[in-house]
């Protein structure tokens, strides 16, 4: 007897291949990621510049002024001690004075002011303190000596200049000794000019900005008459009026564009590296390293850019 085996079970038809689905978790497209990176770098640059400007015109600027004044005071005192302090446009060995060289010590007891005066009145020089206009005689000599100083930024040495009453004494020490002056007038733009000096008479004019903080609307001038003996003046190789616009009142220093450009490139590169490091290291590791670097570049850029602002700011 033949035994029939049961038929094989029917096989299910093969399942259709799954249709392709868009990948998930791959992030935004590459172009979008690049856009985010540049936006992040731009925000880093903007933040560094804003903080740098605020710091340079306030705390950091005042600290820089104090440091530069101490350095200049030590150098000027040394020159007085060895008898080589400047008495004109040239040094003791016949070389032209470099901008920023200390030439005098200005004291106004009524304001509690004691500042070393540097040679030159460009914006970069006035960051360190008052500056002597290079085409005028030094204090104590015949003629009108002009000293400029900032109103608000970098130590704000001349902030209260407008408060000086007539008769206030001013003392200025140079390589020829200490000259004494007496305030005769506080002038604003449009006021009458002081009388023309006679032979062997001396005058000191102090100049600063007028207006709200960091927004100068004009200048204030304080005239003071020399009351001590007139000191002899050495020959002046350069006559009155030879300085350029950057050393005039409220002048700006166009030569600062080059350092601004160079420091800006460094800041931009640091910002791009910060964004790249953020994607590799993470948030906290990146900011711990990047914040000091960005702050340093921000201070450097804004410090150079400050020279483009009016010198009496």
Walk me through the structure.
- The protein has 313 residues and is of the alpha+beta class.
- The chain has helices at residues 30-56, 59-82, 123-126, 257-281, 283-306, and strands spanning 102-108, 113-119, 131-132, 143-148, 169-174, 177-188, 202-212, 215-226.
- The termini are far apart.
- It has a single domain (35-233, 251-313), classed as Sortase (Sortase, Chain: A), CATH 2.40.260.
Note the topology.
Layout: H1 30-56, H2 59-82, E1 102-108, E2 113-119, H3 123-126, E3 131-132, E4 143-148, E5 169-174, E6 177-188, E7 202-212, E8 215-226, H4 257-281, H5 283-306
Parallel strand pairs: 2-3, 4-7
Antiparallel strand pairs: 1-2, 1-5, 3-4, 5-6, 6-8, 7-8
Helix pairs in contact: 1-4, 1-5, 4-5
Radius of gyration: 33 Å
| Helical stretch tally | 5
The appropriate CATH architecture is: Beta Barrel
The rough form would be described as elongated
Tell me about the largest β-sheet.
8 strands, mixed, barrel
One letter per element, helices H and strands E, the order comes to: HHEEHEEEEEEHH
**DSSP strand count:** 8
Strand content is 15-25%
The domain tally reads 1
Mean pLDDT: 88
Main β-sheet, spatial strand arrangement: 1-2-3-4-7-8-6-5
* CATH class bucket: Mainly Beta
What class would the helix/strand composition place it in? alpha+beta
* N/C terminus separation: 121 Å
| Quaternary structure annotation | single chain
- Which fold name corresponds to the CATH topology? Sortase, Chain: A
